[in-house]
Amino acid sequence: MIRFSLQCDKDHEFEAWFSSSTDFDNQAERGLVECPVCGSRQVGKALMAPAVAVSKEAPVRPLAMDPERREMMRKIREMVQAVKQNSEDVGERFADEARKIHHGEAEARGIIGKASSDDARSLIEEGIEIAPLPDLPDDLS
């Protein structure tokens, strides 16, 4: 998985994970990448600072977040929790169950689970709408 810094045509910046650069390009071309702030689908990659490897002896330095970003993280945590509470966890059966729901072979409902990048790509190519659910640390304060 690759994390991209993205920016919409209204200059809102956000991050998203994709299985590859090609995966981002394909989803963006199909209008599947959307700004979480304004809903714009005119999204491109923003400039990113390269990751710098540090030795094990180097202290871990926390990221200082301004109040606006802290509030955004709080809202994202709430959203993730709401999705988890209102979805059925189907585990490794996610791709199969998503297909059954899409084809009307199973009850329409929200599901969460695990899918390989190949399965996720296949689901998207089949027109089945899916989205990654971020794993967030419990506390960033």
Automatic annotation (TrEMBL):
InterPro entries: DUF1178. This is DUF1178 family protein. It comes from Hoeflea alexandrii. It holds the Pfam family DUF1178. It comes from the Bacteria.
